[in-house]
Amino acid sequence: MAATTATQAPPGAARPAATGRSRVPVRAAGLLAALLLLGLAVLLSIAVGSRSIPPGTVIHELLHYDGSDDGVVIRDLRVPRTALGLAVGASLGLAGTLMQSLTRNPLADPGLLGVNAGASAAVVAAISVLGLGSSAVDVWFALAGAAVAAVLVYLLGSRGRAAATPVRMALAGATVSAVLGALVSAMVLSDPEAFDDYRFWSVGALAGRPIQVLWQTGGFMLAGAVLALALARPLNALALGDDAGRALGARRGRTHVLTILAITLLCGAATAAAGPIGFVGLAVPHLARWFTGPDLRWVLPYSMVLAPVMLLLADVVGRVIAPPGEIEAGIVTAFVGAPFFVLLARRRKLVQL
Question: For 62-125, where are the E strands, in sequence order?
Answer without folding.
Answer: none
